[in-house]
Amino acid sequence: MKLKNDRFLRALNREPVDITPVWMMRQAGRYLPEYRATRKRAGDFMSLCQNPQLACEVTLQPLARYDFDAAILFSDILTIPDAMGQGLYFSEGEGPRFRKTIRSPGDVEALPRLDPERDLSYVMDACSLIRRELGGRVPLIGFSGSPWTLATYMIEGSGSKDFRRAKQFIYDHPEAGHLLLGKLAGAVADYLNAQIRAGAQAVQIFDTWGGILSTPAYLEFSLAYMRRIVAGLIREHEGRPVPCILFTKQGGLWLEQIAATGCQGVGLDWSVDIGQARSRIGGQVALQGNMDPSVLYASPGAIRREVASILAAFGPGPGHVFNLGHGITPQVNPDHVAAFVDAVHEFSASGSKPASSQGGG
Amino acid sequence: MKLKNDRFLRALNREPVDITPVWMMRQAGRYLPEYRATRKRAGDFMSLCQNPQLACEVTLQPLARYDFDAAILFSDILTIPDAMGQGLYFSEGEGPRFRKTIRSPGDVEALPRLDPERDLSYVMDACSLIRRELGGRVPLIGFSGSPWTLATYMIEGSGSKDFRRAKQFIYDHPEAGHLLLGKLAGAVADYLNAQIRAGAQAVQIFDTWGGILSTPAYLEFSLAYMRRIVAGLIREHEGRPVPCILFTKQGGLWLEQIAATGCQGVGLDWSVDIGQARSRIGGQVALQGNMDPSVLYASPGAIRREVASILAAFGPGPGHVFNLGHGITPQVNPDHVAAFVDAVHEFSASGSKPASSQGGG
């Protein structure tokens, strides 16, 4: 089936587009009442992830409301450790938790090798179904957590304020840390390739917690393993290149090193000025981002001003996928999302430099 | 009284020192059993802050155990909004909270103007007493929270995961936001000058939450007000320059702009490579930092390796005050702090480049 809207893929290839493509991290999520209804039907969060029909349903929900230029598989960043037997679950109002944790080098050695097509078949089934249901409307993005991000949750057993157990592990047991990250990198590469074969037309690696590390620790324990994954990914599928986006939250200091991994796109959180990011790495990769998700709590007028300001900071020319700098939060008013998406398309269509008056209102 | 150990002040002036000076943010704190004992006698945290004798006692406690090269006033970053009538309190196991919050432009207009010498006399009494008790052993550092950091707590009423109320306030009411930050900047400058007159020999501004902002918002709502404070500080007292250190957590992207405020020292969190920071701004300012506080959970051997690696990254020559990249956390083993302090002095005394073998063990 021919892709009707390929702006997102073209922008990642740094080819010209008519208007700047836009999607939102966590666009299928709790801010949407229809998502909350489906989630309720599914029972808990993992049951929703593991049911391809329902995962497909929530993936498509935001596209029915907004003119997003891409769909992203509804799933969780932590499916791999769950399939390795760590027992992922979500308790109401808290983040992810694992029943088993990694506390010693022996725990790392005991981790099984995954076959994602067999052990995470529900994800591949969801990818195939979503592709079929999309009918070529927009491309489908697959994803995984980064090895370091998976490792932090596996060691801590949950999210953490300071991730001290995870850090203590790599400082006190660097070899076991590398063994763990190597196992995870292999699993993530296999998993993303399986998603691509099942229909994902681009993939994103979420390095949610790379930014909590020192520069040398980030390069050694997070980026090195994302580089290994990028090198192992299928480059082309169905006659098209399959771009890969790396997103390290709070990774603004390391953009040059991230761009040098061979990825096609770099996700930016909102702390970075996207114009400065472009002058640093825009010759090598496309940029994705980077509005502060908290701006969606402000008035539609303030949202429009901020969109205009980010488009102006990026400047004219190709290579920009508009997004938030992190996932949308549950309390956002869905009408504000419409203001956001429409502003991206409106201001980017009107020429390379949105006038500041367009940002008002 | 003559200062017996002026390494810290000399390093901030980028003058040569025999060994690299070291202190720790939150060095008088809960990781010390003697601190917990005094805190228990005082009752709650604010009663400890407001009792000059007890504040002096806990300020001096870490100096009795470790060879720190500076003392820092025991107080809280949020004393100013408390003195403005916002009602600061601490509930057990949680962060700071305010009884009153800023929710509208009218709330900003109603904030009173402070006279720190009158309204925060307990802080000045503590400064004078600590100076007397120190007897010239090491210099005393005074401090305050930055205007933006004070504003986030005043608007949210507490700490926050995403500070969405504070951000919504500045996006929806930028003029009232600037009025609030201007009032706070005036109060912080007056407050730090009062601390200097009462005995503080250097001051630090803690911009704990500047790093949650986008680049343009940081420059407009946080850094501009710290620049205003720096411009209003007493430059010399008791015949010595009084250096000012600006510390924006997660401010690594903005080091050039921070250094251009006219401050003498820039505090670095652990995400920045201190060698790269030095090549960016080391010609203008001294650098303070930057070991990840979580390294203190690792073994003494790992702590020593990390200290050696940071000293090597900074390289030879003056202008480095060793510190953590953020405050020490309560669960750290006090023996590990000794390993940290001793490693800084030992490795920096042995020449400009600690051999990697010195870092082992």
Outline the structure in words.
The structure is a homodimer of 361-residue chains. In chain A, 48% of the residues lie in helices and 12% in strands. Chain A is of the alpha/beta class. Chain A folds into two domains: 7-23 and 269-361, no CATH class; 28-65 and 70-267, TIM Barrel (Alpha-Beta Barrel). A seven-stranded parallel beta sheet of chain A has the order 1-4-5-8-9-10-11. In chain A, strands 2-3 form a two-stranded antiparallel sheet. Chain A is globular. The model of chain A is unreliable at 352-361 (pLDDT under 50). The A-B interface holds A 162-164, 167-168, 171-172, 211-218, 250, 252-253, 270-273, 276, 290, 292-295, 297-299, 302, 306, 309, 325, 329, 331 and B 162-164, 167-168, 171-172, 211-218, 250, 252-253, 270-273, 276, 290, 292-295, 297-299, 302, 306, 309, 325, 329, 331.
**Tally of separate domains of chain A:** 2
CATH architecture call of the largest domain in chain A: Alpha-Beta Barrel
Elements of chain A, N to C (H/E): HHHHEHEEHHHEHHHEHEEEHEHEHEH
The portion of residues forming beta strands of chain A comes to 5-15%
Strand order of the largest sheet of chain A: 1-4-5-8-9-10-11
User: What is the helix fraction of residues of chain A, given as a range?
Assistant: 40-55%
Distance between the termini of chain A: 41 Å
The stretches of 5 or more residues of chain A where confidence is low (pLDDT under 50) are 352-361
Global shape of chain A: globular
CATH class of the largest domain in chain A: Alpha Beta
Find the CATH topology of the largest domain in chain A. Answer: TIM Barrel
Q: Largest contact between protein chains?
A: A-B, 37 and 37 residues
Number of helices of chain A: 16
> In terms of quaternary structure, what is this?
homodimer
Class from helix and strand fractions of chain A: alpha/beta
Overall mean pLDDT of chain A stands at 95
Radius of gyration of chain A: 19 Å
* Largest sheet: number of strands, sense, barrel closure of chain A: 7 strands, parallel
Q: Let me know the number of strands of chain A.
A: 11
